[in-house]
């Protein structure tokens, strides 16, 4: 897919039941695309698709299940003859001092945030190579470009997504396939309140990280993402004020590390001020 026109394009969005995924579905349909809205929470996926008319359908897809992701791709290709856009967006997070993470936490984030994207690429990319065009959009995060403590497993997973996206992009270009890593700072979605272990206040955590009270709006991010696809960009860092963090991490990693150490210290001080909540097991964010 070269650029510009989303009208009539065939798209799949994972994690479409909430937040950024739902906003991507709305933006795509508004631009004339046909979208398969998928989520492990099928009711949520249905709610997203239900509000979007005939251009949207829904399906239960758990991205940790490679066969289910493949089935979603096959479904679109058998109906439309092609898949133009694949949004590997589903994700979870864990926020805690790293010694509190169990192997279950580590494995769940590897399964959803890394394997989930791998499953999307493994299912969609060969089809796009066969058809000679396409665009893969992987929702990473600023945490894929800069490292902050207390979200170690999340940072690891999003660095993997950025690496996968950039490496794939360099060989996909020859097949007229674009690859974009979306790297937003904190976005106003339910994930900010999920995956919190031992009393961390997610909103305070991310607010302190970005030194601003206001979070980026998911519908704005979705519009910025479609614009980045049109421009065939490799990485979308958004909102604009997040650029400073990216540049600092790239060009002054020592300074960034020292800032990160101070950030964790400030976080710990503010976390001691609140009573520890019950350990939040099995949450997907
Ligand atoms: N909100 C932010 O601040 C922010 C910032 C940067 C990146 N991101 C990334 O954006 C993506 C979307 O997050 P969001 O903020 O919209 O969160 P969200 O919690 O609102 O939505 C995530 C969706 O993913 C779904 N999901 C979880 N596990 C799944 C699985 N195994 N299979 C399929 N679907 C699954 C959930 O049911 C949910 O509907 C994630 O990859 C997240 O890491 C979010």
TrEMBL record:
Signal sequence annotation: none
Keyword line: Oxidoreductase
One Gene Ontology CC term in the entry: membrane
Classification via CDD domains: SDR_c (cd05233)
Keyword set includes Secreted: no
Record has Oxidoreductase as a keyword: yes
Gene3D superfamilies hit by this protein: NAD(P)-binding Rossmann-like Domain
A single MF term (Gene Ontology): oxidoreductase activity
Family stated for the protein in its record: Belongs to the short-chain dehydrogenases/reductases (SDR) family.
Protein name, as recorded: Short-chain dehydrogenase
UniProt organism field: Mycolicibacterium confluentis
